[in-house]
Amino acid sequence: MNRLSTGIDGLDSMIGGGIPERTSVLLSGACGTGKTVFGLQFLCKQETEKGLFLGFNEDEVKLREICNGFGWDIKKMEESSRLRFLKYDMFGLQDFFEVLENNIREVGASRLVIDPVSSIGVHVQDSSEVRRSFVELDKVIKRNGCTAILTTEIEKPGVISRYGVEEFVFDGVIVLQNEADKNNYKRKIIVMKMRGSEHSTGIHDYNITKGGIAVV
Ligand SMILES: Nc1ncnc2c1ncn2[C@@H]1O[C@H](COP(=O)(O)OP(=O)(O)OP(=O)(O)O)[C@@H](O)[C@H]1O
Ligand SMILES: [Mg+2]
């Protein structure tokens, strides 16, 4: 099985060498835990593959700023059409899967990030319909040969997804947490699931510094 490096120091060895190719990984975390940075790092810290970042929160200008803040040379990647940022309006989700698939094909993307994937369930009332949307997304990912990081927001402690179904649909689940520690909080990373892989079950510390995210 071919595996893709996450670009996060210390993480690949926790998941058997990297994310299995053509799988989708849910990245759950509370606000500020580094979900967007993680997604960008997955696309930027590699030299060969093409990537698409579909974001609902930050626009292209902001995403470029974040990357530049970490010293990632995205100008070169964008100029050579190896990286595309796409801002999507969460309130205008018509044709979402068609737009996504067209963009994946145009870029020739083998790496995909959707940040946050929970946005695609915003207008869906029925929980089985939400699950169907995520299953459809997973099909688009696999049909196009992509390996994907799909972020989701944790709103309450103990809950790892927005709709309670994402963790069952996607192939892997990585959780980013803030844990109170006297006068500050500690950042913790956990691999909850990685289908087809032997993975760490530890609760590891991680940092976000000027070089990006790194597991301690
Ligand atoms: N250039 C930088 N150098 C060091 N740390 C940074 C830098 N830029 C961002 N950070 C850290 O990353 C955090 C933000 O990470 P990020 O935006 O990825 O979080 P998030 O989980 O996506 O949050 P949200 O749920 O609000 O979207 C900041 O609070 C800060 O701690
Ligand atoms: Mg974010």
Q: Key features?
A:
single chain; 216 residues; alpha/beta; Rossmann fold; 9-stranded mixed beta sheet; two-stranded antiparallel sheet; globular; binds adenosine-5'-triphosphate; binds magnesium ion
CATH architecture: 3-Layer(aba) Sandwich
Shape: globular
Percent in helix: 25-40%
The stretches of 5 or more residues where confidence is low (pLDDT under 50) are none
- Calculate Rg over CA atoms: 16 Å
Going across the biggest sheet, name each strand in turn.
Answer: 5-4-6-7-3-8-9-10-11
Please indicate the percent range of residues in DSSP E strands (runs of 2 or more).
25-35%
Order of helices and strands: EEEHEHHEHEHEHEEEE
Continuous helix count: 6
SSE class: alpha/beta
Question: Whole-number average pLDDT?
Answer: 95
Name the CATH superfamily assignment: P-loop containing nucleotide triphosphate hydrolases
Report on the biggest sheet.
9 strands, mixed
Number of domains: 1
Small-molecule binders: adenosine-5'-triphosphate, magnesium ion
Write down the CATH topology.
Rossmann fold
What is the β-strand count? 11
Distance N to C terminus? 27 Å
Highest CATH level, the class: Alpha Beta
